[in-house]
Prior knowledge:
206 residues, 34% helix
Amino acid sequence: MPKATVVDMTGKKVGEVELSDAIFGIEPNQAVVHEAVKNHLANCRQGTQSALTRAEVSGGGIKPWRQKGTGRARQGSTRAPQWTHGGIVFAPKPRDYSYTINKKVRRLALKSALSAKAAEGNVIVVDGLNLGEIKTKAMAGFLTAVEAGKAVLVTSEVNENVVLSARNIPGVVTTTAKLLSVYDIVNAKQFIVDKAALAVIEEVFA
């Protein structure tokens, strides 16, 4: 059964906790994790890009010169793609890139990502992830104490002090136990979770 270090908000080690085998102890499925990350990035795309085709560019209605006899290549419009100010070939148009993947696939990807973090020893459990006030310096001090780089901070419920204290720290993402993202976990070096949030994760995803 995998284990994780338990620390307090000063970064001091206060014990160890056993992690659920069903969530943190499976064999990671890289193909499923890749599919989940690809899905997340596709769903993030705005799809607002747009360009004009030759049919939509203004002008070009008249044939520039006669078909034969000039010695030049035949041309039918000054708005053809090979002309300056011409239209775009296969011009991109606004579209929706989002798609869904199966619930079981999403869940397996999440367990795989968490298991990989546990196997690397990058799961840190905090005995009460909370701050008395909104203070970026205090949050930065905690992350330095636990030697965290890019990290995802997980609380059981939305904790305004934690969210606002961490939002200006580069590479740090905050989320709640029920809204875990495979992309955030894979993109981070450390998975830092509140002890109460860990219980929620094991209850919801086991």
